[in-house]
Design a protein that fits this description.
mainly beta, six-stranded antiparallel β-sheet
């Protein structure tokens, strides 16, 4: 399988989604998450582990009680059930999100 970021972003934009899942297997799911500068990230803890790869933008990331400055090239790991969210987004944010196993697959 092969993906091109530009095509994924175009599909996401046309669908009007802030999160666009483009790969789903039992073992993992992957999507693109976009938040505009100044946006509020309302996500809640997930039942699966997550990796975030910041592709574009600048923001702060709150992981439990820790605040981390992120920009293009930042990579973040979040354990299942950990409280986390992006905030203080100063430049439009584009993030690749990897769930393992697939998002919501462990939700009861």
């Amino acid at each position: 399988m092969h993906f091109v970021l530009e095509e994924l972003l175009r599909t996401q934009s046309q669908a009007g989604e802030i999160y666009h899942e483009f790969l789903r297997e039992d073992s993992m799911s992957v999507g693109i998450y976009q938040l505009a500068a100044g946006a509020v990230d309302g996500q809640q803890p997930h039942t699966e582990d997550e990796m975030y790869v910041v592709l574009k933008g600048s923001a702060q990331f709150c992981l439990e009680e820790e605040n981390i400055g992120v920009k293009a090239g930042s990579i973040l790991f979040v354990k299942a059930h950990a409280k986390h969210h992006f905030h203080s987004i100063t430049e439009d944010l584009t993030v690749m999100v990897i769930f393992s196993p697939a998002e919501y697959s462990l939700r009861s």
